[in-house]
Design a protein that fits this description.
260 residues; 10 helices; 0% strand; Arp2/3 complex 21 kDa subunit ARPC3; globular
Amino acid sequence: MTRLSWSLIVALAVGAVAFSWPLFLRPASGMPPQLAPTVFAVALVLVLAAVLAELSSGRMDVKTLAMLGVLAAVGTVLRPLSAGTAGLELIFFVIILAGRAFGPSFGFALGATTLLTSALITSGVGPWLPYQMLCAGFVGLFAGLLPRASGRAEIVLLAGYGVVSAFAYGWLMDFSFWPFAIGDGTQLSFDPAAPPLENLHRFALFNLATSMGWNLGRAVSNAVLIALFGPRLLAMFRRSARTARLGSTDARAIAAPAPE
């Protein structure tokens, strides 16, 4: 079983607080202006901590770090080609496959970094960016925690995860702005006085009415792209990961003192 580093555990806790706090803290009519910059700063620290934890433990080396940069650059190029087209997304299948091959820390760092760099390129920086970074990071993180499988069963597993994670990403991103998105007095509005379950019911109606098409498009594109490119990309990523691990082992053996 894959063990989570402390940085990933903190990331999951921060994400839970960042997305769910309106259910318990009774927000006012607008998002606190300091919240998004705080979440952004924390997200950057968590990405750096996840990478440093992998480097210090020997599970990531310079070659793997270079692969992280290359895949983030690929995602940065792919995102402007798909964003805004009926929910079609070309970046998440790469994050899912890389998280599966390299592990949860790599997947988290790749997801968050890809959303950050693509936002800088496309002028998509705004209060939504730190939430996008966390959500995409979690997509890669949980891809690295999926149960073992091989061959066609693994592709089916990853395609199914692509569908589930597409909806989860859309739900979390919608929930990050929904309490402040529409006015009061409708069945789709956030009610600060209502209990959490009532607000979750209202949010489900809101999401169904406004975002189902986008989430479905993202889910279908994830599943199709994983089915088409998953086997070859997984093989390539795993060869790279295996080479990096062998290189790290050889380097430690050379650095170790000879027995007396």
